[in-house]
Structure formats: structure tokens, C-alpha cells
Please model this.
Amino acid sequence: MAEPKKLFIKTYGCQMNVYDSERMAEAMGAEGYVTTDTPDDADMVLLNTCHIREKASEKLYSDLGRLRPLKDARPDLKIGVAGCVAQAEGEEIQRRMPLVDIVVGPQAYHRLPALARNKGPQVDTDFPEEDKFDHLPQRKAMRGPTAFLTVQEGCDKFCAFCVVPYTRGAEVSRPVARILSEARDLISRGVREITLLGQNVNAYHGAAETGDWTLARLIRTLAEMDGLDRIRYTTSHPNDMDDDLIAAHGDVPQLMPYLHLPVQSGSDRILKAMNRKHTRDDYFRLVDRIRAARPDILLSSDFIVGFPGETDAEFEDTMDLVRRVGYGQSFSFKYSARPGTPAAEKPEIEAQVADARLQELQRLITAQQRAAQDAMVGREVGVLYEKPGRLPGQMVGKSDHLHAVHVTDPDAKVGELVRVRVTGAVTNSLSAIRIS
Ligand code: SAH
Ligand code: SF4
Ligand code: F3S
Model:
């Protein structure tokens, strides 16, 4: 039998890209490719890119530059660029980096096998009529007990700073039946935790025979599937947290007590300029309702500092919001102008000011993260073992609240869901002892 060809994929950006990379690997699997973890012996290198911030695409170009010696040594090596930079820059990528054979956008990657078979430079950044998921192979054996499942793609929100509506296109929800069958398939392969994905996952309104479903209804239906112990979803928009979804946090035990609910800024004027379409008070009220449904929920958020025109007082409003909400974890970014977005037309604030604000916010976020971890000490939580730890007899998994947890449990297996008591907290993880 011929040696299988080797595919190396590097994934940048969000969880949707992680999911897409898995599906591209599966699609190339049908072409006789197996994945490898180094580009050195690969027959094909695929960079699945992110366009969200400036540095991400610069990083792509420097990574491509680093592949040049490999391509020079082995001209047969296929180099592909997928994802959001592929969508945004298209042919420009091959103009700047002629070593790139294939450019494929996030809505066209079911055509990757065909592009790879063709000779000469290939570019496909269509938003095709057909649904790519209908043209991809079934999910194959999973590596671990957790999986992502994309239920919704694209975004119609057009936040003034964001490229996603341009790179991923309009909001599309996958049909209910397809999602349920993919979930059943994953569960039959040992998956016990599914994270439902979408750029605006809670705007989900997929079609079923009984009319359009909401994310809450999807979650309630998944919760009835035997063998599925945990459900999460990301990323949600505050304006799409409907009553039933909030209620589900209180009455669906499989829905884990962690919610990523990005707010971006604590200033009403900046929120308006960002086109977020809600105020800081709306957000506070929403947080109160979610916490009333599920008091121990941990919240996380994304923040942008240094949006054009942001004043010291407006930044202080963000700090104040963070103090008032109290997050389990958060991600903060310095604003970067993205070509083609409305905010990119506006004058930027001084880089030093933005840097200082980012540092100040990150100090507060780190302190809150630490406090949230410390507050877990002594509590009983569930942990799903994902892999052996570095020490002998150790297992590592995620708690219900998405904390990484180390447990000494020599006879345990990956995929076991156990109860533990948290005994300690270090910088980025918890330690615990198993109690059942
Ligand atoms: N759909 C999600 C976010 C997708 S992008 C949502 O609505 O929240 C992930 C995060 O990147 C955003 O939440 C935002 O904080 C950050 N981001 C997006 N565009 C950015 C830009 N131009 N500059 C800096 N950060 C940005
Ligand atoms: Fe971007 Fe806003 Fe859409 Fe999130 S909601 S993907 S930040 S445009
Ligand atoms: Fe990046 Fe595209 Fe995701 S821009 S954050 S990879 S949707």
C-alpha cells in the first residue's frame, strides 16, 4: 500500500477555526492524508487563519516566510491558506507570497480536496449556494471526550470594529436535524461534552419540521440524549440572551455554569459608537437575571480598550463595569483598525495611552480570575478527565466552571466524569481530590 500523505494544519483564531480545521483534516483524510504535527515531513501545509486583529495576519506572512526553505527543498509541497485572512485577502496572498498554492475561504473549504488535486494556483473565496456541511465526510473517531459542534455561522451585527461579518458572511443557522445527527454521532464515539459554536451562537434559529428552533430548544433537546453529560455554548451576544435561554441555565443540569458574554466596553457612548446596540445598564440587568437563574455561574467577557475617541473617563467606565460584574476570566485587547470596517475611518488614540489602559485592565482581570479560583477551594465540582497530567498518576480535566483541574487519580481513565473537592488554586489551574 502507498504511504499515506501527510497534512500539517496550524490553526489561529477562534474555536470555530479549531472546528473547521478538524473538518478540513477529515475532508483531506478521504483523499488519503493523515495529519502530522510538524511541517517538516508534510506533503501539505495548511494555515487556518484569523483576521480579527492586525498582528494575526502579519503572523501569517511571517509563518509563510518560514515555510520557504521547505518549499524550495520540496517544490511538490502544497501550501494552503484557509480561514478569515484567506477570505479577506484572497488572491493578494498569492501575489505577496507566490509559494502559496491554495487560498480557500471559510465557506468554501468542502472544496479543499478538489483544489488540492488541481495544478497551479487555486483561489476559492466563494460563499456558495450549497451548504458545505452537506459535502463534508462524517465526523471520524474523536481524540477526546469533548467536542465542538458548529451550529451557526456568520454575523449580521456589524460591530463597528469587527471584520467577522465580512469574512464569515451573513448569519446562517444549520438545520436542527443535521445538528442532532452530528451530536449523536459524536456521542457514539465517546464524546460526553459538546460545546455549541457560532459567531453569534445565541442568535441560532435553525429550521426543523416544527418550525424554527432557538438555541435554548436545541440545548433542551440535546440534554435528553443519553451519554451527553455536559453542554456549553459560545460566543453569545448580550442582545440575544432570550428568556428561555436564561431559564435553561437554571433548569438544564447538563448546561454548565459558565457563560462567555462579551460586552467590549463599559461606556455608553463607546458602546453606541461600537454599534453594540445595548447600554451598560442593559448589561447589568441581564447579568442579574442570569445570576438569578444560576447563582454560581462564572461569567467571562471580551474587552476592547482604546477604541477611537475613548477618553480616560470612558475607560474608567469599563474598569467600573468589570469591578461591578466580577468575572471568572476575561480577554482584553487593544483596539486595532481593520480595513473596511467603519471604525477604521476614525482617528486612533495614542498607542501609549491604549497600552497603559490595557495593562491596567489586565491587572484587574487577572486579580478577578485569581479570586474566582480561590473561591473554588473547598467546593465540590464535577471534572471531566481530558488527558493524563504531567505527574505520574495525575489526570487533567475541566471543571463545570471551565477551570483546568489537576487530580491525582492513578486508576482513572480519560473520559471519566468524576466529583472532586478543590484543595488548592495556582495561577491557571486548580488541584483537587476525587470524592466519587
Ligand atoms: N462574536 C463575538 C466575538 C468575535 S471576535 C462577539 O460578538 O463578542 C473576538 C473578540 O475579538 C471580540 O469580542 C473583540 O473583543 C475582539 N476584537 C474584534 N475586533 C477587534 C478589533 N478590531 N480590535 C481589537 N479587538 C477586536
Ligand atoms: Fe464581530 Fe460584533 Fe459580530 Fe461579534 S457580534 S462577530 S464582535 S460583529
Ligand atoms: Fe478570527 Fe475569523 Fe474567528 S477572524 S476570531 S478566525 S471568525
